[in-house]
């Protein structure tokens, strides 16, 4: 519930295709195998 007349900010949800998800996961796995930091891979 909104208080003090605050406006609700609506953000468009970003959608990824299945192919994009697979590509991002594969890239993350490559980075982890190359001893990159988990925080860096998650960005």
How is this structure best described in words?
With 43 residues, the protein is an all-alpha fold. It has a domain at 15-43. The chain has helices at residues 18-33, 38-42.
Give descriptors for this structure:
single chain, 43 residues, mainly alpha, 2 helices, 49% helix, 0% strand, elongated
Uncertain spans: none
Rg from alpha-carbon coordinates? 18 Å
Number of strands: 0
Rounded mean pLDDT is 84
Structural class: mainly alpha
Count of alpha and pi helical runs: 2
What does the main sheet amount to?
A: none
Distance between the ends:
31 Å
Characterize the overall form.
elongated
Listing every helix as H and every strand as E from the N terminus to the C terminus, the arrangement reads HH
Bin the strand percentage: under 5%
Q: Could you estimate the helical fraction of the residues in percent? A: 40-55%
Give the structure's gist in a few sentences.
With 43 residues, the chain is mostly helical.
List the helices and strands and how they pair.
Blueprint: H1 18-33, H2 38-42
